[in-house]
Structure formats: C-alpha cells, structure tokens
C-alpha cells in the first residue's frame, strides 16, 4: 500500500485567507483565546475612510446651519428685517432664500448618495429624497429671484445689469434644467440604462458647476450689498473702515466658500462613492458591512 506523506506546502491555507491569519501561525495551538483577543488589530482602510467621511459630513452640516443662521442674522439685525411690500425689507428675502436654497440645500442633496448608511438599500427612496431636496432648493431660489425682481420693479431699478445677477440667473437656469433632466433620465422608469450610464458623468459634472456658480453669485452679491449699503452716509461707516456689519458679511462669505469646499471634497473622493458607481479598483464598504 502506498504510504501517504505529509501534505505539500501548496495545500496549506494561505495566511491571508484567515481573518487573523497574520496573527495566528502554525505551532501556536496552545495559545489561549484570551491571548488572541489581547492582540490589537489595526483599523482597516475602509473603516478609516468611513470615519473620515462622517467627520467631513458633520462639518458640512454645521457649516450649512451656520450659513443660514448668519444670513438671517445679517438681514434682521443690520438690514431691518423682512417684509413683502416692494420695499428694501422685501429685498432682504433674496440673500436668505438664495443662500438657503441655491447653496445649502443644494449641497446637502448633492452629497446624499455618499452617506454610507444609504448603501445596500433600495435606491429608489433615496432618489426620491434627492429629487425632493433639489426641488425644494430650486423653489426657494425662484422665490428669492422673485423677491429681488419685484423690489427692483417697485423702486424703478434696472434688472440683471451686474455681473452678480448674470452669474446668479445662469446658476438658477442651469439648476432648473438639471432638475428636469435628472427626473426624466434617472427617476422615470422608461429611461434606458444605456442613456443613464451616458449622462451620469455629465449630471455629476454639471452639479459641481452649478454649485460653483452659486457660491460665486452669493459671495459677489454679499460684497455688492455691502458696497451699496456702507457708504459712510446716514450714520453708517464706510465699508473701507470695516464696521461690524462688514466683518459679519465678509465672514458669511467665508463660511459659504468653506461649505462649497467641503461639498466638492466629498464629491471628488472616489472612495466615498456609492458602491454601485465606484471604480472597481477602489473598493469601499460602509462600516456596518465591515463589522459583519
């Protein structure tokens, strides 16, 4: 009878095939379970990426709330409050609604698919939430434009004469087109998959362009309003002297720019893409999937 020899080295399991293969080796069968538990396992790259994402996401939420709060305080404390009667108080709705809709809500909706808690679930409810957030942002932006157009018409001022207004109306028009095209291509069931794959990169790219234009419009609008208001007359100090309102308005602009940077950071990180759209060479799993 042929004698059976010891197993060849090629038949032994590779250390990488074991969950703790780099810690448990041959000849350590006497090691107790408590000793194995005492060995520290380094954090995986996926776990660190998840933690990094939630840090950025929490920062994004805080910056968004700060932007909305600051623009409301600015127009209520220094600009006299709000009304809808064709006066300057009606104009005050314009910066509040544009910052809230065209920047903050738009940014929140743009990064919705990046949240790992939404992964591994039916995508349709998140599509509907994404479309709803974007629609709400678009409606607030349109009302904000109505506020400034109505104010200009009541006070016999020309419309769309400044670079700020050109950039703002362009961002809003592109936003409206983006929303209609997004619903038609990515939400309605009759759209073919090949068309979705073709237009998805364009949809993402155009979203970043709209956000960038929105930030430019908001920052230039804040600066324009401060120039028009702080002229050193009627008891106000000139803008060049940096009175408290100037400091506050400039700080609001910095917050808006910081908010945009964080949004673009989240959108540009391929490791934070939803798995069904992430590149194959950069796998990434949510934290709860790694624990499983």
Describe this structure in words.
Residues 59-268 form the Cytochrome b561 domain. Its main location: membrane. It is found in: Late endosome membrane; Lysosome membrane. Its cofactor is heme b. Pfam families: Cytochrom_B561. The chain is an all-alpha fold and 292 residues long. It has one domain (48-272): Up-down Bundle (Four Helix Bundle (Hemerythrin (Met), subunit A)), CATH 1.20.120.1770. 64% of the residues lie in helices and 0% in strands. The protein contains 9 helices and no strands. The protein has helices at residues 33-38, 45-78, 88-91, 93-110, 123-154, 163-187, 193-229, 244-268, 287-291. α4 runs parallel beside α8. It is globular, with a radius of gyration of 27 Å.
Overall geometry comes to globular
Question: Termini, distance in Å?
Answer: 48 Å
Q: Which H/E pattern describes the elements?
A: HHHHHHHHH
Q: What structural class should be given to the helix and strand makeup?
A: mainly alpha
CATH class: Mainly Alpha
Largest sheet: none
Low-confidence stretches: 1-42, 278-292
DSSP strand content: under 5%
Can you count the helices? 9
């Amino acid at each position: 009878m042929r004698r059976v020899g010891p197993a060849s080295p090629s038949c032994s399991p590779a250390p990488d095939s074991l969950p703790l293969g780099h810690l448990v080796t041959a000849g350590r069968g006497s090691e107790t379970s408590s000793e194995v538990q005492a060995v520290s396992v380094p954090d995986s790259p996926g776990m660190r990426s998840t933690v990094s994402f939630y840090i950025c996401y929490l920062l994004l939420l805080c910056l968004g709330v700060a932007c909305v709060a600051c623009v409301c305080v600015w127009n209520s404390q220094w600009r006299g409050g709000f009304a809808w009667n064709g006066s300057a108080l009606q104009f005050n709705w314009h910066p509040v609604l544009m910052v809230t809709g065209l920047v903050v809500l738009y940014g929140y909706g743009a990064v919705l698919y990046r949240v790992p808690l939404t992964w591994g679930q039916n995508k349709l409810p998140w599509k509907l939430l994404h479309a709803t957030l974007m629609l709400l942002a678009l409606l607030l932006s349109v009302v904000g434009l109505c506020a400034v157009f109505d104010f200009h018409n009541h006070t016999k001022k020309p419309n769309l004469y400044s670079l700020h207004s050109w950039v703002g109306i362009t961002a809003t028009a592109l936003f409206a087109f983006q929303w209609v095209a997004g619903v038609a291509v990515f939400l309605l069931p009759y759209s073919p998959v090949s068309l979705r794959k073709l237009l998805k990169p364009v949809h993402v790219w155009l979203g970043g362009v709209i956000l960038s234009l929105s930030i430019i419009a908001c920052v230039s609008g804040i600066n324009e309003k401060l120039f028009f208001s702080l002229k050193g007359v009627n008891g106000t100090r000139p803008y060049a002297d940096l009175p408290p309102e100037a400091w506050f308005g400039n700080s609001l602009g910095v917050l808006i720019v910081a908010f945009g940077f964080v949004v673009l950071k989240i959108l540009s990180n391929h490791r934070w893409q939803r798995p069904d759209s992430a590149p194959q060479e950069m796998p990434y799993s949510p934290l709860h999937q790694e624990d499983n």
